[in-house]
Predict the structure of Acyl carrier protein.
Amino acid sequence: MLVTHRSILTPTGGTVSNEGVRTEVVDILRDVVPEVDSSEIDDDTSFQADLGMDSMDSLTVVEQVYERFGIDIPESDYGDIDTFGKLVNYVEARVD
């Protein structure tokens, strides 16, 4: 069976698969909230309720998404991206 993976270009010219997006987002969260247990992160993990992130942490995540993926998240979208799964979907939808 042929399995294809969608790849995306990063700002440095490399590519990242769909699984790579999830891995990169987990890495971003571990950078921002070092005490997070990445094995407990799932699509429903809330940044505020589950990870204890505050507004400054959220801005750091936005900055890291821009640096790693070249995606600028407008302030108007911040409220819609409050879980791990929503952030992964947001990034994946914009890297095609």
